Amino acid sequence: MQTSELRIALFTGNYNYVRDGANQALNRLVGYLLNQGAAVRIYSPRTDTPAFPSVGKVVGVPALALPGRAEYRAPLMIPPSVKRDIRDFQPNLFHVASPEILGHRAVTLAHKKDLPVVASVHTRFETYPRYYGLTFMEPVVEAMLRRFYRRCDAIFAPSESMAQLLREQRMNYDVGIWSRGVERDTFSPEVRDLGWRRSLGIADDEPVIGFVGRLVMEKGLDVFADAIDKLVQRGVKHRVLVIGEGPAREWFEGRLPQAVFVGFQKGDDLGRAVASSDMLFNPSVTETFGNVTLEAMAAGLPVVAAIATGSQSLVEDNVTGRLVRPGAISAFADALQHYCEDKDSRAAAGAAGRVASERFGWDAVNQELVDAYLRIVRQRMEHRPPSQRPR
């Protein structure tokens, strides 16, 4: 079977109505598949105000805004009109990118059609309850995820550390890797701009601690702020640069009154903002890969991150940055203080990160997933009676 023979039905709760690393990776994947001659149809909630233009044909599914997080939409079902579209499209593989109602319905439909179905894992949903005072719910959420992922032929994690966790959680017996790439021209030390920093009131000799991402509590904003408080108490010279937007911005601004908030950035503006920092601080434990970590490394920044899935596969402790036990405020502050006060160590770690980022190219990582698609489709065909195998 050739790539051009693939017909992929992709189901996702967010394809382009809110910008995040997961849906940008999905759009890149669809673009790569289309360029290789495959056919792809995307089934996802749509909006009149998308965050960015979508790649490929998107068929809308009914959805409602999530309570308390109205920027996200929860798909409700696969209506008859969409089922007819799926039938007419004649997919030979389902790819499910989110474990909500739409994902469950898609897996059930794939089983009815005797089609293989794979899932990609983009975030650690089982960790979310702890950020909303519902830690006791984590085992329940994990059990729900296990039921969903075990119904798939295979699942794909963006990092080896996340794949190993999925194996330990017994989510599926076939766990593969679909990594992430980085645009090394966009994220490069060459685009560092001291003039831009000065326009924000940041002096050239002030070490800048960057935060990049959506401003939501599950990104570890409380840990970030507490570690910065430690630096202030110790009298460590620094500035905080927050790159991103989200519902927790007001809370974060209140906790970090001296920080510079530049809002959402994209493309070359994002590359400039990242490169104009001096280090990245990423305390999140919900990441499955950590796109912002890889982008910072490509920009030549040391990374201080939690010992968590994603970061463990990217950051080499004491080489490209520091890995710290999740929630260890003093240890995070120690690592940040080290890079604030030791310019040579900062430069050495940043240079090592730039080199380490070279192995992450989008075409290569997407081709690995395509190869897995082909393997899974062939396996399903071989288990069918000869009379039912397509020519």
TrEMBL record:
Residue spans making up a coiled coil are none
Q: Which Pfam families match?
A: Glyco_trans_1_4, Glyco_transf_4
* The UniProt record lists the keyword Transferase: yes
- Assigned keywords, A-Z: Transferase
| SUPFAM superfamilies in the cross-refs | UDP-Glycosyltransferase/glycogen phosphorylase
Identify the InterPro entries for this entry: Glyco_trans_4-like_N (IPR028098), Glycosyltransferase_grp1 (IPR050194)
- Residue ranges occupied by any Glycosyltransferase subfamily 4-like N-terminal domain in the UniProt entry: 20-184
| One term of GO molecular function | glycosyltransferase activity
Put simply, this protein is called: Glycosyltransferase involved in cell wall bisynthesis
Q: Which organism is it from?
A: Edaphosphingomonas laterariae
